Amino acid sequence: MALCERKNNQKFLPLEAHGIKVMSVGLLAEPDHPLAWRRPVLHKIITQFIHDVEWGELDYLLIDLPPGTGDAQITIVQESPICGVILENLLP
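Now predict its structure.
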């Protein structure tokens, strides 16, 4: 069973600790089931995280993205107003 679910088409409730709200694909996925998503599914889950999570009032929304083709970044720019971006290149 997933750690975070929604019922009756209500918004997802993020987990919260020390005043920090967290939502992750890992909270929605069944344990021990690997996920390999491409653009259409990735677009849908990012859209749901932006619009279908009960974030409440936020000062900041930080989004940690896996490396990839940039599809996730394009979706975020299309779906939400961006005030700033932090990029970290971990390649040598």
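The chain is about 30% helix and 5% strand.
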